[in-house]
Write the structure tokens for this entry.
Amino acid sequence: MQPRIMYIENKSAGLTGGEARIGLVKFSQTGKTLYYGGKSFESTKGAGCKANYRCVETREEYWISGPKRRGGDGLYGGDGAFVDADVREAYWTQIRNRPASVERARS
């Protein structure tokens, strides 16, 4: 599977969530394991509390999904996520359709 720009939020801080990022997620050959930021993620298979993935190394829960065209990517909206520099141009031009915002580091 091709790498994909996705929204990644650490939900271990509680229902309000923790650090959120938008970055390039890679997939295993089977698509069952996701890789981002040096961590591996496996599906909670519906067992997570407001989370759909769990970090294999730390067991922390995460919400990982495709970013929304209108923004507000978090499960409950939120203050916006940090957009990784390597995907910033593609995120603002292809996903959000806001090329004037390419320099913005936060969604």
Q: What stands out?
A: The beta strands are 4-10, 20-27, 33-36, 39-43, 53-55, 61-65, 82-83. The CA atoms of residues 10 and 19 lie 6 Å apart.
